[in-house]
Amino acid sequence: MRIVVPVALFLLSLPLAALAFKEGPYPNVTGGFGEQSCHLCHLDNPINAPGGSLTVEGVPQTFVPGDKYGITVTISRDGLRRGGFEIAARFASGKQKGRQAGTWRLLDDRVQLIPGAVDRVLTPGSPPRVSDRGGVVFVQHNLAGSRAAASGRNTWTIEWTAPAPAASPVQFNVAANASNNDDSPLGDYIYLKAVRSSPQK
Q1: pLDDT at 24
Q2: What is the pLDDT of residues 42-62, one digit of tens each?
């Protein structure tokens, strides 16, 4: 009985969790800088399984600090009925490693910005304070953006403004989900990609 009740509660929660992911995943699930990925919940298929692809276009090999770049994320797989993604841009090295690099601008109503997870930091002899893990802001799909415009494919474009000044390369981490839209986290395919861009010298 002790085992049956928790299992039953978990199974009942699956449709609710799936609905939440249609509207956007948790923050900090791109798989970069030691964080988890969407595979945390959509876990019954291997990451980057053959038969599908994740592309990230528009990230320059070298960026000009302060310039704007259109970045397009595309997830493709036969059977995809909904698709989702999450992307972050962080400094890849130096004193700011892992912190937000540049800023994002949304170009349509299919995507949203979400702040990174926060930690409560306890320091002996002082009140708790909140750490924002470097102020990382994630871009991800929303409910409208999870709908695939074409069977087997979904795509999103956002604008990234390069940091100025910039002393280190920027790493873009992306996680995307090719979903079968069955209102559960099962039967989906997670793809991860990391792309780097260096400041122009």
Answers
A1: 77
A2: 878 999 999 999 999 999 999
Side-chain-facing half-sphere of 58: CA atoms under 13 Å: 16
- Nearest to residue 85, comparing CAs of 71, 102, 69, 68? 71
**Closest to 200 measured CA to CA, from 56, 66, 58, 57:** 66
Supply the CATH number for residue 182's domain. 2.60.40.4060
Q: Are strands 170-179 and 111-115 parallel, antiparallel or unpaired?
A: unpaired
For residue 167, the model assigns a pLDDT of 85
Q: What is d(CA 24, CA 21) in angstroms, rounded to the nearest whole number?
A: 5
Contact 102, 90 (CB under 8 A): no
Residue 83 sits at φ, ψ, to 5 deg, of -140, 145
Q: Into how many domains does the chain fold? A: 1
Residue whose token pair is 């698709």: 83
Q: What does the pLDDT read at residue 3?
A: 46
Query: The tokens of 76 are what?
Result: 């493709």
Within 13 Å, how many C-alpha atoms sit on residue 86's CB side? 26
Cα–Cα distance measured from residue 184 to residue 12, given in angstroms and rounded to the nearest whole number: 10
> What amino acid is encoded at 2 in this protein?
R
DSSP-derived letter for residue 64 is -
Q: Which residues of the chain have pLDDT under 70?
A: 1-21, 118-134
CA distance 85 to 163: 23
Domain coverage including residue 79: 4-199
